[in-house]
Write a structure and sequence with these properties.
By secondary structure, the chain is α/β, with parallel strands linked by helices. It is built from seven helices and seven strands.
Length: 192
């Protein structure tokens, strides 16, 4: 039986070809850096990058002086992340829905384009909240894509409200983040 993990394993080789995945274009990379630096506390913070994929954001944030642990359940994604970011971040194969991290051990739980795909996003948000040290924050990048997949901003804000969390929404319509114009909903949420 093919699992979600198998599908992501198969995606790993070409994953970074998408502009927002590989951040190969300097303008795109700079836009993401600016966005995330503004969303995170000053370095050095302890950042868990859950569903880190090929480690693009782990590497970016390590480069900003943060201490980053990346976790992904796809061994092929983690293998590529280790090549790219293994010198800069700790990288582990593991479940983002139940991360193998101690309670209250993170200043930031970062998750880009993964929450929507988890079987129980509400339960995941409760667990992630438990990973945060006092004053910590969740930084979520999500979308409701033209494919029909994803979470609307309203759905994500509702999930956070149900978890008893404040949230600040930053819509991300700018083409620079995505390598071109978009016609669907993409956004970042910071929840303290
Ligand atoms: C769309 S990619 C995003 C990767 C990375 N966050 C980024 O933005 O570049 C989704 C990633 O989430 C991972 N993933 C999906 N479900 C997961 C789970 N339950 N636990 C850990 N990783 C998961 C996949 O293996 C894949 O690497």
């Amino acid at each position: 039986m093919t699992t979600g993990r198998d599908l992501w394993d198969a995606e790993a080789e070409s994953f970074d070809d998408q502009p927002d995945h590989g951040l190969a274009d300097p303008a795109c990379r700079a836009a993401w850096r600016h966005l995330l630096v503004a969303a995170l506390p000053p370095a050095p913070a302890r950042v868990a990058d859950l569903g880190c994929g090929t480690g693009t954001l782990s590497l970016l944030l390590a480069g900003e002086g943060h201490t980053v642990t990346g976790i992904d359940y796809s061994p092929a994604m983690i293998a590529r992340a280790r090549v790219k970011a293994g010198h800069a971040a700790e990288l582990h194969v593991g479940d983002a829905a139940a991360p193998p991290l101690p309670p209250a051990s993170c200043d930031v739980v970062l998750c880009r384009h993964v929450l929507w795909a988890l079987p129980d996003p509400a339960a995941a948000l409760r667990r992630w909240s438990g990973l945060l040290a006092p004053g910590g924050r969740l930084v979520l990048v999500e979308g409701r894509w033209h494919t029909g997949g994803g979470l609307t901003a309203g759905q994500t804000l509702d999930l956070l409200r149900d978890a008893g969390r404040e949230a600040r929404l930053r819509p991300m319509p700018e083409p620079v983040f995505w390598g071109g114009p978009i016609d669907d909903e993409r956004y970042l949420v910071v929840s303290r």
